[in-house]
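Q: I'm building a small set of examples for a reading group on sequence design. Run inverse folding on the following structure and report the sequence directly after it, with nothing in between.
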């Protein structure tokens, strides 16, 4: 099958996120998949979050293909991307059919990240534009989760100093996923207002990361306020995906 041109060219992904941070995020998702797909009951209680997991895996797998550093599953990233997209599409309702389809997609994700490509994986394109691989609404929900966690939990300098590593991870995810949904393969991404909201979001997330390096709680507060404002203004103009 001929390759489809990927987007994201020219972005210094390594400066945005390390492969270790990508691995930390995929590990978080893998643990959530395991816990949420133990039964139809656990699926029913978590299916909306599983949709988010699928979108994020698809986005990160697309990024891994372009990242200059390596990870064990990089050569098979197209399969992880494909299974992530399938999980997003499968985890869309309560019930046995959606549970079964989600479980199958999740098993594919786990297999690829373990270094194995399932026999029925097919032959997906080597690359896809972000807008075709990763649903924007799902990616945005991960951004919202990161923002909400920091806004709700990092409410004092003492907590800030205790949670530096997690703040760094969450703010990095916002910056990376914000960069991904800025890609021109998404509808409206080339519009001036959309691009402005996305830039404010990314800048705020980067400033939050800098506040961790400088151990400055006041700078963190300013940064998370910028992130929150960018999200609110974008949703007011463009909705939720």
């Amino acid at each position: 099958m001929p390759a489809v041109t990927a987007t994201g060219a020219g972005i210094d992904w390594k400066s945005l996120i390390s492969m270790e941070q990508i691995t930390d995020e995929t590990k978080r998702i893998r643990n959530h998949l395991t816990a949420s797909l133990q039964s139809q009951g656990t699926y029913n209680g978590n299916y909306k979050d599983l949709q988010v997991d699928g979108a994020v895996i698809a986005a990160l797998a697309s990024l891994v293909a372009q990242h200059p550093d390596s990870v064990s599953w990089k050569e098979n990233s197209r399969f992880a991307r494909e299974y992530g997209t399938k999980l997003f599409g499968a985890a869309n309702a309560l019930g046995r059919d959606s549970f079964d389809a989600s479980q199958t997609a999740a098993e594919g994700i786990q297999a690829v990240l373990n270094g194995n490509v399932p026999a029925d994986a097919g032959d997906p394109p080597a690359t896809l534009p972000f807008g075709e691989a990763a649903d924007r609404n799902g990616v945005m929900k991960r951004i919202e989760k990161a923002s909400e966690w920091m806004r709700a939990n990092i409410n004092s300098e003492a907590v800030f100093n205790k949670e530096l590593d997690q703040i760094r991870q969450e703010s990095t995810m916002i910056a990376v996923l914000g960069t991904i949904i800025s890609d021109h393969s998404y509808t409206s991404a080339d519009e001036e207002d959309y691009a402005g909201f996305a830039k404010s979001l990314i800048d705020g997330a980067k400033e939050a990361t800098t506040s961790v390096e400088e151990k400055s709680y006041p700078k963190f507060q300013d940064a998370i306020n910028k992130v929150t404002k960018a999200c609110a203004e974008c949703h007011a103009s463009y909705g939720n995906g």
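Residues 13-113 form one domain.
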